[in-house]
Amino acid sequence: MLFSDDFSTWEQRFQELIREEKPGAKWTLHLDKSIVPDGAALGWRQRQQTVLGRFQCSRCYRSWTSAQVKILCHMFQDACKTQGRVLMRIFGQRCQKCFGSQFESPEFSTESIERILNSLVNYILQRYYGHRKKASILNASSDEKVPLDGPHDILNCEACSLHPHGRCAVAQRVRPPTSPSPSPSPSPSPKSHSSSPSKSHPPLLQTEITGFRNRPFQEVREPGEAASPLLVILSVAALAVIGFLIR
What we know:
By secondary structure, this protein is α+β, with helices and mostly antiparallel strands. The chain has helices at residues 8-21, 110-129, 135-140, 158-162, 169-173, 206-213, 223-226, 228-246, and strands spanning 26-31, 45-56, 63-77, 83-90. Strands 1-4-3-2 form a 4-stranded mixed sheet, with helices on one face.
């Protein structure tokens, strides 16, 4: 099924899924080729999906299948939380064999369309109403993983050509492995305090130690001890003179 041929079936199924979880809510879904990645208006949310689709070149009629079809949605909910609006853009791809070929629109199977809409509704329920869909529905549809093996052709991806940085979200996820950073060299272990000499008490030289040990005993006496006999003699003489004068 070509998505642009009968988009009314998308709109109808989307509203049915919303009413299953929120009977009183009214949300609309519209195609809009003017929205761009990272260009949501103030108050709007953006969501991007990567899904499986099939393309056919309108020039050479070559067909190919891609697991990297980009779908962009901008959504807004009114203040009373009873109505909402979703703008959707499904990006195309160019043929790799034809020079100057145009971006072709993808085709989706019924199962792929169901996964796309279930995933979108589940996102709305989480962001605007704070809950998820039933686990049985999620396991059967939106939680199904799509393999993304192989390089992304950024030159022929419409989403990449319109992205502000020239690469869509798929291309940004595919990055070459980075070389491991060199491990830091171990820092030297701190020296123990016992091995480093004390700066406040420099060690004595061997000659100073030897000279101190060989010094005679009288050299280390106090000066007062050597002068004691002379003081005694002077004191006796002074007493003698005083006694003679008294007489």
